[in-house]
Amino acid sequence: MSELKKYFQRFGYLSIPDNQNDSFTDVFDAQFESAIILYQKKFGLPVSGKLDSQTISTIMSPRCGVSDTGPKLHATKHFAYFYGRPRWVRGSPMTLTYAFSPSNIIDYISLAGIRAVFQRSFSRWASVIPVNFTEIEDYGSANIKIGFFSGDHGDGEPFDGVLGVLAHAFSPENGRLHLDEAETWAVDFGKEKSKSAVDLESVAMHEIGHILGLAHSSVKEAVMYPSLRPRSKKVDLKLDDVEGVQALYGSNPNFKYSSLLESEYSSNKAIGLHYRPCSCTFSWLLLVFSLLFMIT
Description:
calcium, glycoprotein, 2 domains, six-stranded mixed sheet, zinc ion binding
């Protein structure tokens, strides 16, 4: 149970009581039940306050490393912002530059393929707000710095290996966007057959939202929803994403809500295999704890 409590602490649902000496107990207490209820509400799950099968399945799903809730976030009914609603402040029209780390990059997807993924992703966000994105070669001077990293990479948010935290990004005007090098990244599920493959474009879309100032949404269909199952795609902005980012930057003069509303009726479908929980020790611990809880 203490491992589950650490998970809820990491993503903003639980704090360590002052009398527990910086550690968690294995007791299913009222504070932990409240954390579960908050988690279930945030993820649009049935609110039971228990570690039921849907809650456990969601906990085990790969996800973004940015916290879902807490004092540094400001939530609305669906979408949310970082505390203070930070945003990029530049001249009008605004242009933000981005670059890829020359030393922290994967080699099994071509750089041209990675660039194309991010170009499409930035274009989708630019289509709804008056912000342009331009790739430059100089990584050090770019507003947005993109790279693939593993483990503890010096930003206080270490990655945890395959199918845990997929990526994270920081609020404006930090500009850092980091992807976990340990994942099996894919740009074409037809070519990448791994059951644990993660769609690079879907994660890019999500993390760019953080770069712009959006926190996590409780709308499952939204790009800014925190989790993404292996071999699934979520690249089209939904109404919740658009309303959130336009509240920060205003609307692109060429954007039309009618086209967005039409796309709401033709959402992307998951591609490939159904998700199967990873066989990591933590996942098995979650299953064991849930079974013990239901038995007792």
